[in-house]
Design goal:
With 79 residues, the protein is an all-alpha fold. The protein has helices at 2-14, 16-25, 28-42, 47-52, 54-60, 66-75.
C-alpha cells in the first residue's frame, strides 16, 4: 500500500512544473495570483472596498505579474 502511495505522489509532483507551465501559457497563474492577493487583503473588509482599490493593488503588485513580483522580492536587501 505504501509503495503505491509513494508512486502516486512522485507521479503527481513530477507533473507540477508542466501543470504550472500550462497555467502560465494560459495566463491563469497571474489570475490566481491576483485572486490570492485580493483575498488576503479582503480579510475583514468589504469586497466593494477591495474592488475599488483594485487599481492600487494592481500597481503595487506590478499588474499581478507573479514573475516580476518574485524578481523584485529577490532584489530587496535583507533587513
Amino acid at each position: 500500500m505504501r509503495n503505491n502511495t509513494v508512486s502516486r505522489l512522485k507521479t503527481t509532483t513530477d507533473n507540477i512544473p508542466a501543470f504550472i507551465a500550462t497555467l502560465n501559457n494560459n495566463g491563469m497563474v497571474n489570475g490566481l495570483f491576483e485572486r490570492l492577493v485580493l483575498e488576503i487583503n479582503q480579510a475583514g473588509l468589504s469586497w466593494t472596498l477591495i474592488l475599488k482599490k483594485r487599481q492600487a493593488f494592481q500597481t503595487a503588485y506590478k499588474g499581478f505579474d507573479i514573475d516580476t513580483v518574485a524578481i523584485g522580492l529577490r532584489l530587496q536587501p535583507d533587513g
